[in-house]
Amino acid sequence: MVKKFRANMLTSQRKQLILATLQRDGQLVAKTFSQQLEVSEDTIRRDLRELAAEGLLQRVHGGALPASPAVADFAGRSQIAGDGKARIGRAAAGLIEDGQVVLLDGGTTAVQLASQLPPALRATIVTHSPSVAVALALHPTVEVIMIGGRLFKHSVVTMGTAALESLGQIRADVFFMGVTGVHAEAGLSTGDLEEAYMKRALMARAAETVVLASAEKIAAASPYLIAGLDAVSGIITEQSVPDPQLAPLRQAGVALTLV
Fold this sequence. Notes:
Elements: H1 11-25, E1 28-29, H2 30-37, H3 41-53, E2 57-60, E3 63-66, H4 74-77, H5 82-93, E4 101-104, H6 108-115, E5 123-127, H7 130-135, E6 142-146, E7 150-152, E8 157-159, H8 161-167, E9 172-178, E10 181-183, E11 187-190, H9 193-204, E12 206-212, E13 224-227, E14 234-237, H10 243-251, E15 256-258
Parallel strand pairs: 4-5, 4-9, 5-6, 9-12, 12-14, 14-15
Antiparallel strand pairs: 1-3, 2-3, 7-8, 10-11, 11-13
Helix pairs in contact: 1-3, 2-3, 5-6
Keywords: DNA-binding, Repressor, Transcription, Transcription regulation
Pfam families: DeoRC, HTH_DeoR
Protein name: Transcriptional regulator, DeoR family
């Protein structure tokens, strides 16, 4: 429990304490926090707004959640958790069976999955990611179907009406989905509204969805909700995620694969 502090605590000290509390507890309730620090709730809300503007937390009704660092563009995300993403991609690739139709999301972890498919695998990969398609171009027995549309350069995926219409003709066995946030209460989230709609549309075309989430995305949230945790079959993440961050996911009934 946060001990009480004087009302004249410096703004920088309050902000440091806010971030430390989010890291420790995974959430912050503005009213409770203001009482513990003996300052007004408006003061805490102002601190939260300023920290959110810096990308250091995600504001929600009544307080805040940890912000995901995975909202950088594709090039920036390529520098985050490279080894972990490779392990996640390898584990996901091992779940794909001969004859399956697989929807593969965009993102750096999806590229890792594509590059680690067994050479003898005979399957169909449907993707809206040019990067994934290129990674599969030399695979001898995987058929690749590209979903066309407007290129969203931030994530290097196609989106828009044309992409959504193309999805209407597809029935996949499994969708491997990337996210920027996985939180027991806030669900699965991403940093762009249209991208959230696209991911929901992809989920609707698959019999099941498996989330690929490197460690920095666990217990974090982004502005736009994709779906609740109950909408997916499981999450593949890293063994390095601290157990206090995994425990709420397990309590929510999520099937976790740690690699």
